[in-house]
Design a protein that fits this description.
The protein is an alpha+beta fold and 332 residues long. The protein has 2 domains: 2-138, no CATH class; 178-329, Histidine kinase-like ATPase, C-terminal domain (Heat Shock Protein 90, 2-Layer Sandwich), CATH 3.30.565. It has helices at residues 2-22, 25-28, 34-65, 70-95, 102-105, 107-177, 179-199, 207-224, 249-259, 298-310; strands at 204-206, 229-234, 244-246, 269-276, 279-285, 316-319, 323-329. It has a 5-stranded mixed sheet with strand order 2-4-5-7-6, covered by helices on one side. Strands 1-3 form a two-stranded antiparallel sheet. Strand 6 (316-319) and strand 7 (323-329) form a beta hairpin. Helix 1 packs antiparallel against helix 3 and helix 6 (107-177) runs antiparallel to helix 10. The longest helix has 71 residues, at 107-177. The relative contact order is 0.07. The model is unreliable at 98-104 (pLDDT under 50).
Length: 332
């Protein structure tokens, strides 16, 4: 990508540099035929391109043999440019090109070529600096994503054994109490675990898929906390396939509400999931647990980090003594 950009700049800038370089020529030499000026212009275009190629080759050599030795590249660049001037001067003498003003003829080609090479060095170094910056930003972004993916995997690994233990305990009690309800619970649990096996391979999924997965989770919790946990979902069906969401985002918010509240049949937890102005809103009444029983909030922090790498819209948290609300931006 970097060399491609250098070659592209060389092709575009060579004619411009040539026009700048030959502008004083009519004042320094006698040109009986204007066509010769065009000929000189083409020669300067070729010279500018040749100097570009020499510098691009030196950049490749520096990266492969002497990384970081920029000053050596500068020395080689100017030495090669002066050698090129010497070759041109020899050809000029050999073929007796347009009559020159002797007091300017010695210095003019040297000044011209050195100036041309300096401009090319500045442009090429600007391109190199920009390319390195973009590469560093891309690597940093990839590292952030990999870090978040690792955190997500860690959360899944932590969640599954604990969740499975609670689910099996609930299933055991249901089998003794209500066989049909136990069968329904087992089907929901199977669907939930099947989703967790493959879902972590994607950073984002359709809102419809996350809703189906979260609904299974909610149904499991409703059976587990029978009569003390309620949830209402009011989302436009037409939007479910128009938006995406980070995988486990909605399930994390539902789980967060369950983990941080001490609800009972007399004081149930009421959770609502709704949509407004492109945001998914998860809200619940607060029935705080004792401070010693409250978790670390790793799930919500992880979700905030994931959103910061995917969208300019941060996770919005609105907390009052009575309600806890989280808004997350849905992704197109």
């Amino acid at each position: 990508m970097k060399k491609k950009q250098l070659f592209k700049t060389a092709l575009i800038s060579s004619p411009i540099m040539a026009a700048f370089e030959i502008s004083p020529v009519p004042f320094l030499v006698s040109i009986p035929n204007p066509l010769k000026l065009w000929g000189i212009g083409l020669i300067f275009v070729l010279l500018a391109f040749v100097i570009w190629i020499l510098n691009i080759l030196l950049i490749s050599f520096e990266e492969s043999k002497n990384p970081g030795k920029v000053w050596k590249r500068y020395i080689y660049s100017y030495v090669l440019t002066l050698l090129l001037v010497a070759v041109i001067w020899a050809i000029n003498l050999l073929f007796n090109f347009p009559e020159r003003k002797e007091h300017l003829s010695i210095f003019f080609p040297i000044i011209n070529m050195v100036t041309l090479n300096t401009i090319i060095l500045i442009l090429s170094d600007t391109i190199l600096t920009r390319s390195k910056k973009m590469q560093a930003e891309a690597e940093l972004s990839n590292l952030k994503i990999k870090h978040l993916e690792a955190e997500q995997q860690q959360l899944i690994q932590q969640m599954q054994p604990h969740f499975l233990f609670n689910s099996l305990s609930t299933l055991k009690s249901l089998i003794k109490r209500d066989a049909e309800l136990a069968e329904e619970y087992l089907i929901k649990l199977s669907d939930f675990l099947r989703f967790t096996i493959s879902a972590h391979e994607n950073a984002t999924i359709l809102l419809a898929e996350e809703l189906k997965f979260t609904n299974d989770y909610i149904d499991l919790q409703k059976i587990r906390f029978l009569g003390s946990f309620f949830c209402t979902i009011s989302l436009p069906k037409s939007y479910e396939n128009d938006y995406k969401i980070p995988v486990y985002a909605l399930q994390t918010l539902v789980e967060n509400a369950i983990k941080h509240n001490a609800f009972t049949e007399t004081r149930p937890l009421n959770l609502s999931i709704s949509f407004q102005d492109g945001f998914l809103i998860v809200s619940n009444n607060k029935i705080p647990k004792p401070a010693s029983a409250i978790g670390t909030g790793v799930g919500l922090k992880n979700l905030e980090k994931r959103y910061s790498s995917m969208s300019n819209d941060a996770v919005k948290i609105d907390e009052t003594p009575q309600m806890f609300t989280v808004k997350i931006k849905l992704l197109k």
